[in-house]
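Students often ask what a holo structure prediction actually looks like on paper. The answer is less mysterious than it sounds. You provide the chain, you provide the ligand, and the output is a string of discrete structure tokens encoding the 3D arrangement of the protein together with magnesium ion.
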Amino acid sequence: MTDQPSDAAIPQQLEQLQQRLAQAQRLTALGELLSTTTHEFNNILMTVINYAKLGLRHTDNETRQKAFEKILAAAQRAARISHSILGMAKNRSGNLEPTNLVQLLEDTLLLLERELNKYRIAVEKYLQPIPPVLANGNQIQQVLLNLIINARQAMPQGGRLTVKLWHDPGSGMVHLMIRDTGCGIPPEILPRIFDPFFTTKTGPDSSGKGGTGLGLSMCKEIIQAHQGRIRVESAPGRGTAFTLMLPSAQPPAEPAPPALSPSTQEAVSSPLSTAPPAPAG
Ligand SMILES: Nc1ncnc2c1ncn2[C@@H]1O[C@H](COP(=O)(O)OP(=O)(O)OP(=O)(O)O)[C@@H](O)[C@H]1O
Ligand SMILES: [Mg+2]
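The corresponding structure tokens follow.
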């Protein structure tokens, strides 16, 4: 006896497996967001509790003033985070709509600010003015979280995260590059990093993140569903750059030859490009 499926049953089983994979990917993304925000709120509460205790112990005006300022700053940070999460919860539809990518990026960096500080990662931002992109904000935030957490995990001894945002009016695409100065990706595994369940991590790290190998496969699926592109360039020992290209909500201007576009040049002539770029899909 064999439990091999009959030929007729295979497409149906494949469909079921794909649905289960998509469900698993949604759950990992949700788990990532939940663990990041819970961590953040816990940190903020610790700050509030410790400065309240300090203010109670020391009755001089100067210490109390400092304690109140710290408590206020921590509470305002919590308010900004919950505000951005409520904003995400509102946009639950699967629809693509004009979306402010700068805001999404800032919200995501705010959420990960503590974690990046903890691992001594400096953030550099080069954000040019861009039009709104046609996107599902929740999904794009999942992509950003994945890429930034991957970058952080590639720099266990600290490093630099560079974020660049620009618009190419010729193609109508908005480009977002996330570059790290981490371990890089060996050329032999570069073609596999977008495969579901491909991971080089042994399991969740000390922050409870990483290791399922679903992050990049989900990023690729989401970006393709947006009619966008995701590409990677990496140099082992020097770092990795992921670039997302998303259609802007404005129609493209008069077509221009790509060679004349400084932004396209920038992406292609990256100093990291010692390994051939591996476009996803
Ligand atoms: N910025 C990066 N620097 C170095 N290697 C990376 C980077 N991003 C991804 N990788 C490699 O690609 C692999 C797949 O990444 P992916 O995000 O899909 O899975 P993961 O991070 O291992 O697990 P998770 O599902 O929790 O995200 C990683 O295990 C790592 O080897
Ligand atoms: Mg990952």
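The chain has one domain: 11-279.
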